TrEMBL record:
Protein's organism: Magnetospirillum fulvum (Rhodospirillum fulvum)
Known role: In addition to polymerase activity, this DNA polymerase exhibits 3'-5' and 5'-3' exonuclease activity.
Name of the protein this chain belongs to: DNA polymerase I
Name of the top EC class for this enzyme: transferase
Lineage: Bacteria, Pseudomonadati, Pseudomonadota, Alphaproteobacteria, Rhodospirillales
UniProt keyword annotations, A-Z: DNA damage, DNA repair, DNA replication, DNA-binding, DNA-directed DNA polymerase, Exonuclease, Hydrolase, Nuclease, Nucleotidyltransferase, Transferase
Length: 937
């Protein structure tokens, strides 16, 4: 049947044509070697399968086909025998995978098309023409430049590796002409990859200029004698026939009879048994698990899976070697690696520095990986020891007289455009650190992926996310350790002193492993339905956090020093008071052993408990129980709290002020918590106690620059609102929607009293229940919190569940979900893992159940504020405001803004934060501006 004569198909609205041949080679070169149990290589099959799976899940098309090349001999080789003649045969390991890839397509019940005498590109052109004649939209899944001639009003291309749509504008960016003149440009400039000759000496820019001036190839050749440049004129006159031949070679044929009608490409329902059988035969049992398919029985002889699940270690990939690691010491070599990186379109990327503090670290070197096993190290400021052999970790040796790095300004000038190139994806592990280091040098890094965050999104708290651990877990590979190259303890050296060859192997391996992990982890996002969490929450948050950390917070040094001195005097007074309460007998207040003897032997206070080591337990809970019985434990609690504030904040913060900025720069960990919350360290600004006057004084030390103010914006009762939303509690939803006092409403409904009769005592009890329920509070815990009998606390909880039965149903459903899957999900899809949910130990199991109940709530709140943080910078810029985000403390954001813009900034912040999620209850944000953090909060 001819493409142009086929009758219209009523259901044909959107046809997706996948360039299968291109996918095969990308998969083969992008993944490390893998073999199934019979020794057949399957890395290309696995990569192709995961890419096809992602496309099928993402696509809304009603017709889909995968198009393949049939053989090398086509009508083009008849026209020009040298066409593609220089291409080597495919690698031996790839040849047996060609038929398996076609089997993969059929296993998904997708049309698999090829035709003798024509290339895949011709078939794509023919099907695109047939579909557009029927009024359908066509998407070609490929980055092949030869297919750009097909782009038009109804036809677009999509590059899945770069997540990029290619339309007329992108074609013009590539060729300098519209899609309708791509063939003319290619006829002139030729194509070295396909051995299309073109016209000697004419590149894309010149070709585009000529076609733009003369309109088309035939007009140009007819008027070639008019061209002013003698050499160009003669070249075109001499090579007119070759230009026309080249045009015939690059122009896609779309007029052949189609091997299958377009109607045969209609999307069909998946047959799970067929797909499971194919995946099992290849050894892809982890994919079977991720797709929740029922695997066929294993064969009698056990086979080794070649791809690991999230909880099993993969076998070491064949050929994991450092032989192709390169040390880059000259600009020509660097240029070759940069060209290879641009060609690959995706690179593993890492930096080496001389410090863990990204704000103070110096860049020592950069490593790149363009494919598994192909990586390099580019030293920037290396001064290794003179001997390039064994390294003595003692005194620093004399300066080396050996090879020298490229001067830093030259290497960075070459690398900066690559690191900012939007067409090259930079994959790092904890890439936030690398971006910080390079930002200090004025070098942006974009676009990015982060294997640490990929692992965190996929596997949460089920294991750690360090590079070395993931290499062992997923690649079966042991990385060179930092201690092996830099030593340990007092003899440890900085990385710039490591011999260059050792530095090369260590650094290049990090980039190589990062790229391999990316190829393993990224496809899992789709299979495990975690794309949205990663792409809308975690990845776009990285540059926001980088900017926050770099901004830092200004600290009033004099105020802190005065506060520290005041705390010191008060600590001395408290110590004297405690000793007096001990009958004047001095002891070390910081010694649990001495304190235990004072409490339970000298003072003979009741309720003492001994630890496994035989010492008295003296934790805060013990002291709180003893406080009503004797004044000494209460004074000791005051002493401990003040001592912690002094050592952790007033003393430490002064030392942590960056001398270059005059500000404190905390570091946010993006992959450290179970629920998705950020955590802060060096210094930890999220745990400053604010329930005491002393704690609030610490916040008073954080101030705005002159002419600026600090803005604190805090979600009001966000976790309670999420409880009402996820549990579907109509009573709470109504109260929130009407803006009423939620704790008074709860007190009225639970205790059965009119709303106007709810006093502060009843409201306090209702508040304790409201917040306690989120954490699975027990009658014992509520009784201790409210200082009431357990029986009364139990009655309160039962009354609460009686009034709000939806929450008990939610809690039971959530615990069952955790027992079934090992995790629960937030309203936005994040997995919150619940280890211990099936523990035989009742206390451990109860703890895991409480964590499961709290997971969707606390995790959901973390997701919401992350959504707000991602959107806020752009919203401020759009509003023409100069405010910048400085800090996140769980449900609170802190910004610095010009005083004159405070009111406008607050309005934008409220709008973004309150609109960060669409819940069945409204989100409410309280915000204020002041000169210090404490005053604004």
């Amino acid at each position: 049947m001819s493409a142009v004569s086929e009758s219209a198909t009523a259901s044909l609205r959107h046809l997706v044509l996948i360039d299968g041949s291109g996918f095969i080679f990308r998969a083969f070169h992008g993944l490390p070697p893998m073999s199934r149990s019979d020794g057949t290589p399957v890395n290309a099959v696995y990569g192709f399968t995961t890419m096809l799976l992602k496309l099928l899940n993402d696509s809304q098309a009603d017709h889909i086909a995968v198009i393949f090349d049939s053989s090398r001999k086509t009508f083009r080789t008849d026209l020009y025998p040298e066409y593609k003649a220089h291409r080597p045969p495919p690698p031996e390991e790839l040849v047996p995978q060609f038929p398996l890839v076609r089997e993969a397509v059929r296993a998904f019940d997708v049309a698999c098309i090829e035709m003798e005498g024509f290339e895949a590109d011709d078939l794509i052109a023919a099907y695109a023409r047939a579909a557009t004649l029927q009024g359908a939209k066509v998407t070609i899944v490929s980055s092949d430049k030869d297919l750009m001639q097909l782009v038009g009003a109804q036809v677009s291309m999509f590059d899945p590796m770069k997540n990029r749509t290619i339309g007329p504008d992108e074609v013009f960016e590539k060729f300098g002409v519209g899609p309708d003149r791509v063939v003319d440009v290619q006829a002139l400039c030729g194509d070295a990859a396909d051995n299309v000759p073109g016209v000697p000496g004419i590149g894309i820019k010149t070709a585009a200029q000529l076609i733009g001036e003369y309109g088309d190839l035939e007009t140009l050749l007819a008027r070639a004698g008019e061209i002013k440049q003698p050499k160009r004129r003669q070249t075109l006159l001499d090579n007119a026939a070759m230009a026309r031949l080249s045009r015939d070679l690059v122009k896609l044929r779309d007029d052949m009879d189609l091997p299958e009608p377009v109607s045969a490409l209609a999307v069909r329902a998946l047959v799970p048994e067929r797909l499971a059988a194919f995946l099992a035969e290849q050894g892809f049992r982890s994919l079977i698990n991720r797709l929740d398919l029922k695997a066929p029985p294993r064969p009698p002889v056990a086979s080794t899976p070649v791809v690991a699940t999230a909880t099993e270690a993969a076998p070491a990939p064949a050929g994991f070697s450092r032989d192709q690691y390169d040390l880059v010491l000259d600009l020509d070599t660097l240029d070759r690696w940069i060209a290879a990186a641009i060609e690959a379109g995706i690179i593993g990327f890492d930096t080496e520095t001389d410090s863990l503090d990204s704000m103070r670290a110096r860049l020592v070197g950069v490593s790149l990986a363009v494919a598994p096993g192909r990586a390099c190290y580019i030293p920037v400021i290396h001064n290794p020891p003179a001997a390039q052999g064994s390294l003595d970790f003692g005194d620093a040796p004399a300066e080396s007289a050996g090879p020298k790095p490229i001067p830093a300004d030259q290497s960075l000038a070459r690398l900066a455009p690559l690191l900012a190139d939007p067409s090259v994806l930079k994959v790092g592990h904890n890439i936030k650190y690398d971006m910080q280091v390079l930002a200090s040098l004025g070098v942006p890094v974009t676009p990015i992926d982060d294997t640490m965050l990929l692992s965190y999104v996929l596997d949460g708290a089920s294991h750690g996310h360090g590079l070395d651990e993931l290499a062992q877990l997923h690649l079966g590979h042991t990385n060179i350790s930092f201690a092996e190259v830099c030593g340990t303890g007092k003899s440890q050296i900085t990385f710039d002193r490591v011999p260059l060859e050792k530095a090369r192997d260590y650094a290049a391996e990090d980039a190589d492993v990062t790229l391999r992990l990316h190829q393993f982890l990224k496809p899992r996002l789709l299979a495990e339905k975690m794309v949205e969490v990663y792409e809308t929450l975690e990845r776009p948050l990285i540059p926001v956090i980088v900017a926050m950390e770099r901004a830092g917070l200004k600290v009033d040094r004099a105020f802190l020093q005065a506060l520290s001195e005041d705390f010191g005097r008060r600590l001395a007074d408290l110590e004297a008071e405690v000793i007096a309460l001990n009958g004047g007998e001095a002891f070390n207040l910081a010694s649990p052993q001495q304190l235990g003897k004072v409490l339970f032997e000298t003072l003979n206070l009741p309720g003492g408990k001994k630890t496994k080591t035989g010492q008295w337990a003296t934790g805060a809970d013990i002291l709180e129980d003893l406080a009503p019985l004797h004044p000494l434990p209460a004074r000791l609690l005051d002493w401990r709290q003040l001592a912690k504030l002094k050592s952790t904040y007033t003393d430490a913060l002064v030392a942590q002020i960056n001398p270059a900025t005059g500000r404190v720069h905390t570091s946010f960990s993006l992959a450290a918590t179970t629920t998705g919350r950020l955590s802060s360290s060096d210094p930890n600004l999220q745990n400053i106690p604010i329930r005491t006057e002393e704690g609030r004084k610490i916040r008073r030390a954080f101030i705005a620059e002159p002419g600026f103010c600090l803005i604190s914006a805090d979600y009001s009762q966000i976790e309670l609102r999420l409880v009402a939303h996820v549990a579907g509690i109509e009573g709470l939803r109504t109260a929130f929607a009407e803006g009423r006092d939620i704790h008074a409403i709860t007190a009225s409904q639970v205790f059965g009293v009119p709303l106007e009769a709810v006093d502060s005592s009843l409201r306090r009890r209702a508040k304790a229940i409201n917040f306690g329920i989120i954490y699975g509070i027990s009658p014992f815990g509520l009784a201790a919190q409210l200082s009431i009998p357990q029986s009364e606390a139990k009655a309160y909880i039962e009354a609460y569940f009686g009034r709000y039965p939806e929450i008990r149903a939610f809690m039971e459903q959530t615990k069952e979900e955790a027992r079934t899957h090992g995790f629960v999900r937030t309203p936005f899809g994040r997995k919150v893992f619940t280890p211990g949910i099936k523990d035989k130990n009742g206390a451990a199991r109860a703890f895991a159940e409480r964590a499961a109940i709290n997971g969707p709530i606390q995790g959901g709140a973390a997701d919401i504020i992350k959504r707000a943080m991602v959107r806020l910078p752009a919203a401020l810029v759009e509003a023409g405001l100069a405010a910048r985000l400085l800090l996140q403390v769980h449900d609170e954001l802190v910004l610095e803004a010009p005083e004159a813009e405070a009111e406008a900034t607050i309005a934008v912040v409220r709008r973004v934060m309150e609109g960060a999620a669409c819940l069945s209850v409204p989100l409410l944000v309280e915000a204020a501006a002041a000169a210090s953090w404490d005053e604004a909060h």
